């Protein structure tokens, strides 16, 4: 029987929210928390264990060290420098690369042979770094990509059109950051293209929505200092899809090798994931402008990747 064991490295707001979502939705049988601040990890584990009485199914929850990665199915890294309202996600590349050098090295030294799930920013870059440092196959190193951006996109479109966000089928693609691209030409509501549902003058409103999606994290940071509930839920959904061998499509950070005429980088694209990791990348029918913007987004990431010494 599969252990469905998740090790979470980093017990800040994102790591704790992810752990709580795993417990609340009965997704993992075993959850291990690792943090440089061992007392913080112990405290989070205790707090989660006190919630077990109200959980639908039991789970083993504890704090630990990197030896716990030996038999883990998923190691999720949420650790790293914290983003603030005056910085972009890309500003943390050098600092987080050094942090990841230590984390990934210790995970692999424990004999880890599962799936890496990366949430630390800049997530596309850090997923690429993890792949390089770990030596694992590219389909078993996954970043959260534009999972959160897409959730915001569908939520805001649902608000605009007065429908449940689940009725919106669309994606944000590219970098999880300022160069992200709203795939309007591939977005539908109830099967009807969104672009067919608006008059020409309303297309400005759609552009405003994409800007609000792009800047949403900044707005949250300015008001409460961190974004963590949305990504915590998103990571839990990804974990459920992996453990359930669901073959579900998520806009995750994946390695491209010719898809969308891109290569040798990790970038957010709709992809099928299951127990083995990434099964395939779905190529949307983007219009010429969207494809151009996606190429530009890839260039932003590739320019950064080429500066990293691994």
What does this structure look like?
This protein has 310 residues and is an alpha/beta fold. Helix content is 40%, strand content 20%. The chain contains eight helices and 14 strands. It has helices at residues 13-24, 38-49, 93-109, 123-134, 147-161, 203-224, 229-243, 288-305; strands spanning 5-9, 30-34, 60-63, 74-77, 115-118, 141-143, 168-169, 172-173, 181-182, 188-189, 192-193, 248-257, 263-274, 277-281. The strands form four sheets. It has a six-stranded parallel β-sheet with strand order 3-2-1-4-5-6, with helices on both faces. Strands 7-10-11 form a three-stranded antiparallel β-sheet. It is globular and about 55 Å long. The model has no long low-confidence stretch (mean pLDDT 94).
Topology:
Elements: E1 5-9, H1 13-24, E2 30-34, H2 38-49, E3 60-63, E4 74-77, H3 93-109, E5 115-118, H4 123-134, E6 141-143, H5 147-161, E7 168-169, E8 172-173, E9 181-182, E10 188-189, E11 192-193, H6 203-224, H7 229-243, E12 248-257, E13 263-274, E14 277-281, H8 288-305
Parallel strand pairs: 1-2, 1-4, 2-3, 4-5, 5-6
Antiparallel strand pairs: 7-10, 8-9, 10-11, 12-13, 13-14
Helix pairs in contact: 1-7, 3-4, 5-6
Task: Please give a handful of descriptors for the protein shown.
310 residues, alpha/beta, Rossmann fold, L-2-Hydroxyisocaproate Dehydrogenase, Chain A, domain 2, six-stranded parallel beta sheet, three-stranded antiparallel beta sheet, 14 strands
């Amino acid at each position: 029987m599969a252990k469905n064991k998740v090790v979470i490295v980093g017990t800040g707001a994102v790591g704790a929210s992810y752990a709580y979502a795993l417990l609340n939705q009965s997704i993992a049988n075993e959850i291990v928390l690792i943090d440089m601040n061992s007392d913080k990890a112990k405290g989070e584990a205790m707090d989660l264990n006190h919630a077990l009485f109200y959980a639908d199914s039991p789970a083993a929850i504890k704090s630990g060290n990197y030896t716990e990665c030996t038999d883990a199915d998923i190691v999720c890294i949420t650790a790293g420098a914290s983003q603030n309202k005056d910085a972009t996600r890309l500003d943390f590349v050098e600092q987080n690369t050094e942090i990841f050098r230590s984390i990934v090295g210790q995970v692999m030294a424990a004999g880890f042979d599962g799936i890496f799930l990366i949430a630390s920013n800049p997530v596309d870059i850090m997923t690429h770094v993890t792949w390089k440092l770990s030596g694992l196959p590219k389909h078993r190193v996954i970043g959260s990509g534009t999972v959160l951006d897409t959730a915001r996109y569908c939520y805001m479109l649902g608000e605009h059109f007065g429908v449940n966000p689940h009725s919106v089928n669309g994606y944000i693609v590219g970098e999880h950051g300022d160069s992200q691209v709203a795939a309007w030409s591939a977005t539908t509501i109830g099967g009807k293209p969104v672009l067919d549902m608006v008059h020409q003058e309303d297309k400005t409103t759609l552009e405003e929505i994409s800007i609000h999606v792009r800047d949403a994290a900044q707005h949250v940071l300015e008001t409460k200092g961190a974004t963590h509930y949305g990504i915590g839920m998103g990571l839990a959904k990804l974990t459920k899809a992996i453990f359930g061998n669901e073959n579900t499509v998520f806009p995750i950070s994946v390695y491209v090798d010719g898809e969308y005429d891109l290569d040798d980088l990790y970038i957010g694209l709709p992809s099928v994931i299951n127990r083995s990791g990434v099964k395939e990348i779905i190529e949307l029918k983007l219009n010429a402008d969207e494809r151009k913007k996606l190429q530009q987004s890839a260039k932003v990431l590739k320019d950064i990747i080429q500066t990293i010494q691994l």
